[in-house]
Amino acid sequence: MSALMEVRVCAVRQLTPVVREFTFEAAEGQLPGFSSGSHVQVLMPLGERTLRNAYSLLGDPADSTRYRIAVRLQDASRGGSRYLHERVAVGDRLQLSRPHNLFPLHSQASHHVLVAGGIGITPFMAYIAELQARGASFELHYAFRGRLTDAYVDELAERLGDRLHAYDSSAGQRLDLAALLAGQPLGTHLYACGPQRLLDGLREQARALGWPDGRVHWEAFAAPEPGLAFRVELARSGQRIEVPADLSLLEALEAAGVEVPNLCRGGVCGQCATRYLAGAVEHRDHYLDEAQRADSLMPCVSRGGCASALLLDL
Amino acid sequence: MTASGTDTIFSKPRYRTAASPQPARRRLLVAQDAACAVPLLDHPAPALLLSLGGELAADIQQERFPSPAALYLRLQLLLEQAEVGTRLYVVGDETFVWHVYRLARHAGLLGDEIELIKSGARRRLYCVHCATFQDIGEEGEANCSGCGVRLLVREHFSQRLGAYMGVCLDPSRPYGEDRP
Ligand code: FES
Q: Which of A32, A78, B32, B95 is the 20 to 30 A CA-CA neighbour of A85?
């Protein structure tokens, strides 16, 4: 992975019972600029292991003196979001990767439709800053659970007026995907970020209504799920590595000093593709097709079986 | 994350022979000759046919135009009011279909939303030496109508120009014979 940088936490805000916002400034020097839709990886030292989670930068890209991220506490997580919620305070130092953008705005669009589910609002906070600065045409559809995952909804209502369409599931309001997709002018591009269920529903509806894939852009929540412990063997170096239940294969490789290129750490960008020579694989990515899965896997999310060691071409 | 299709600028274009089964909410069919639009009819979405002439005995809405310019103008207006879910199908010779293609891309359609069917042999040739366009048939060589140089018609097709590239056939004779 590319160079890391050190930041200092300069503000922490609890936005909802489960969403906490962190503001970072450079520990020294300047933070690199970023474009809207970018994310950074945050390194979290948990005991002797280091977890890395990717979070969207939600500040205004025109101002890169500070970075902001918002983190939802995930119950089923491996401890990354819990660490940020419970252990990180103002004045602490953290390590981040440089920003990368896997979810950029489409420059040729004449109208932008943004669809956010819950904490999926984060990349759009930066989008909105940029779109407003450009005077671009856009609308935001934001589905959340009131007083739980409704981060920024008041601020957005004030900034966007009737360009914000809010759907509070605790009040029985539902996002009607077909209605949202109907009647959009020809130059429209659609961007979605949220739970897999929302993304799948949207893609299916969009296709049925004649939207080609090139108009529909999405970002899944990128975080590996824990699994069972398994063993890997590296064919070239002969190294053997144990991957514990709460670490991803990528993290276990990194802990053993093996660098694998990666960006999203959530099985969507395709960067970390690694060949394997033998063993059972539990594929959990959204990138490889069936044919590619016969000899490649994405170590940021996918895991080996517990019966026999997985032999990697590394 | 989706990758939007990038246009290959230079390649020999490939054409469809019938409408794809891609879902659509509305279809615009554009034909030089309405009779050639038959392979485009097999699709459930409502369609409107714009043509320059010819007869199509089918139960769809049709509009006919006296000139290409009038047809292009009408299409432009239709696309300005169109919504996502609209697909465009074009049938005609290469000069025609690529003109319509560029117009539609300009109006906001993606390459994936446009289907081209080729009929007829007319092609457009672009002289890389003097930037003149001219219409040719299937021949592999031609005299440039601009600078008179003998051109070899390369297989390279520029989608941006809607034309094949013509390059000087004989480097030892870089000028036309009867150039004043
Ligand atoms: S790092 Fe993006 S797919 Fe693995």
A: A32
With beta carbons less than 8 A apart as the criterion, state whether B102 and B130 touch: no
Say if residue B93 is in the same domain as residue B162.
no
Residue in A137, A186, A264 to test binding to B, most B beta-carbons within 10 Å: A186
Distance CA A116, CA A140 (A): 8
Is the pLDDT at A191 greater than 50? The verdict is yes
Q: Do A214 and B84 touch (CB under 8 A)?
A: no
**Gap between the Cα atoms of A113 and A35, Å rounded:** 18
B127 shares contact with chain A (CB less than 8 Å)? no
pLDDT, tens digit, for every residue of A195-204? 888 999 999 9
- Co-location of A216 and A133 in the same domain: yes
Residues A208 and A241 in one domain: no
Helix boundaries (H) for chain B: 68-80, 94-106
Residue B70 C-beta-side C-alpha neighbours within 13 Å: 10
Q: Residue A225: inside a domain, yes or no?
A: no
- In angstroms, the CA B32 to CA A115 distance is 41
Ligand 1 atom with minimal separation from the A263 CA: 1
CB contact under 8 A, A215 and B23: no
Q: Which of A57, A77, A101 is the last residue of a domain?
A: A101
pLDDT(B22) > 70: yes
Among A254, A264, A288, A289, say which to mutate for ligand 1: greatest number of ligand atoms within 8 Å of CB. Answer: A264
Give the CA distances from residue A6 to residues A29, A94, B25, B34, in Å, rounded to whole numbers and listed in that order.
10, 6, 51, 67
Q: Do residue B144 and residue B157 come from a single domain?
A: yes
Domain that holds residue A26: 4-101
- To test the pocket of ligand 1, the residue of A269, A284, A293, A296 to mutate (highest count of ligand atoms within 8 Å of its CB) is A269
Q: A195, A220, A245 — which closes off a domain?
A: A220
Residues B49 and B83 grouped into a single domain: yes
Note whether B172 contacts A: Cβ–Cβ < 8 A: no
pLDDT at A1 (0 to 100)? 46
Contacts of residue B82 in chain A, CB cutoff 8 Å?
Answer: 185-186
Does the structure's ipTM exceed the value 0.85? no
Q: Is the pLDDT of residue B43 over 90?
A: no
Residue A106 resides in a domain: no
Q: CA B77, CA B71: separation in Å to the nearest integer?
A: 10
Whether B99 is in a domain gets the answer yes
CA A183 to chain B, closest CA, distance in angstroms equals: 6
Question: Of the ranges A180-184, A217-221, B175-179, which one carries the lowest mean pLDDT score?
Answer: B175-179
Query: Using CA atoms, how far apart are residues A151 and A119, in angstroms rounded to an integer?
Result: 7
Residue A211 located in a structural domain: yes
The CATH code of the domain that includes B80 is 3.40.50.80
Question: Model-level pTM?
Answer: 0.84
Provide, as residue numbers in chain B, all residues whose Cβ is less than 8 Å from the Cβ of A217.
Answer: 1-2
Report how far ligand 1's centroid is from the alpha carbon of B103 (Å).
Answer: 38
Q: Using a CB–CB cutoff of 8 Å, tell me whether B1 touches chain A.
A: yes
- Label residue A74 by pLDDT band (50, 70, 90): confident
For residue B67, give its domain range. 26-118
